[in-house]
Amino acid sequence: MNILSYPEALKPLMAIIIAIASLFTSLFFDVNIPYKANGPDLSKYKLTWSDEFDGDELDFSKWDGHFFNHGDTVIRRGSYWNTDLCSVKDGNLHIASRYYPEGLNGNGKPGWYTAGIDTGKSFAQKQGYFECRCILPKGYGQWAAFWTFCSGVNLTDHDGEKGAEIDIFESPYYGNKKKIMKNTVESNIHINGYGDKHRHDHVCQAFVAANNPYEEYNTYGLEWNENEYIFYINGVESGRTQFGVSQVPEWLILSVEIAGNDGVVDEDFRGHCINDEDNEMTDFIVDYVRAYSLK
């Protein structure tokens, strides 16, 4: 149901049909189906940074652990993060989720391991267009994300101009029994830290209709200008907001997280993660990440 895939003559009719379907799903499931075929005009942009993952290992001149260093192990919600869970093969980045009963490399910290990586030491950009092509991981209690961040997110005296957490997509609904919910991703904006002054905008929860997001590639994009954020799935607008528009450079993040706390899995709205290797989880597979700025 991606309008861009239809012949030109059918696009007006399909836009109406998909708009009606989107209204129906939003009324009953709080989900929208992207249908506005007004994708970003890349002719006005120039490529400023990319990783095509064409080598045989993660390029640590571009990426490092998200708030931890390569080689370290840190707790992240119900799992541990370690960049050893990242590998590059066949032109893709793989962020794995694995259960180690004795801990990674026998480190004495049993549990689930996965990773979050960012470009904080190598690249940040204010505004532009940002895109990731990927296959989402399958696993209860597990979700992937492509997002941006900066130090100003933790400041509590602004309306987003000093920095925002921009969740271009998150995929927390694999465990949902309804397919219309299961095959959705969401986009969010967070500002003013994560304490009492935290504010956020749940921009959209969008159904990925063109391809099965857990089996096939889709693209997830953000067009960020001085006035608003516009989110895209496969070049079709999925949501937009003028909430908390950052006016400072931000770095890029790819991550996989598992529900829980202090390295111990638990159940939340994302589902329950079984605390052993019988809970099969697939990799978060990323074909590329690209950033563009206006020419």
Task: Summarize, please.
The protein has 295 residues and is mainly β. It has helices spanning 11-29, 179-182, and strands at 45-51, 64-65, 74-76, 79-81, 86-89, 92-95, 98-100, 111-114, 116-118, 128-135, 142-149, 165-170, 184-191, 199-207, 218-224, 229-233, 236-241, 251-258, 260-261, 264-265, 267-268, 271-272, 284-294.
Verbal overview:
- The protein is mostly beta strands and 295 residues long.
- 8% of the residues lie in helices and 40% in strands.
- It contains two helices and 23 strands.
- The strands form five sheets. Strands 1, 5, 6, 10, 15, 16, 17 and 23 form an eight-stranded antiparallel β-sheet that branches.
- It is globular, with a radius of gyration of 19 Å.
Derived from helix and strand composition plus strand pairing, the structural class reads: mainly beta
The biggest beta sheet is recorded as: 8 strands, antiparallel
Instruction: Provide the succession of SSEs.
Output: HEEEEEEEEEEEEHEEEEEEEEEEE
**Beginning-to-end CA distance, first to last residue:** 32 Å
Q: How much of the residues is beta strand, in percent?
A: 35-45%
Identify the overall geometry.
Answer: globular
Number of helices: 2
Low-confidence stretches: 1-7, 14-29
Question: Would you spell out the secondary-structure blueprint of this structure?
Answer:
Elements: H1 11-29, E1 45-51, E2 64-65, E3 74-76, E4 79-81, E5 86-89, E6 92-95, E7 98-100, E8 111-114, E9 116-118, E10 128-135, E11 142-149, E12 165-170, H2 179-182, E13 184-191, E14 199-207, E15 218-224, E16 229-233, E17 236-241, E18 251-258, E19 260-261, E20 264-265, E21 267-268, E22 271-272, E23 284-294
Parallel strand pairs: 4-8
Antiparallel strand pairs: 1-23, 2-9, 3-4, 5-6, 6-23, 7-8, 9-18, 10-15, 10-23, 11-12, 11-18, 12-13, 13-14, 15-16, 16-17, 19-20, 21-22
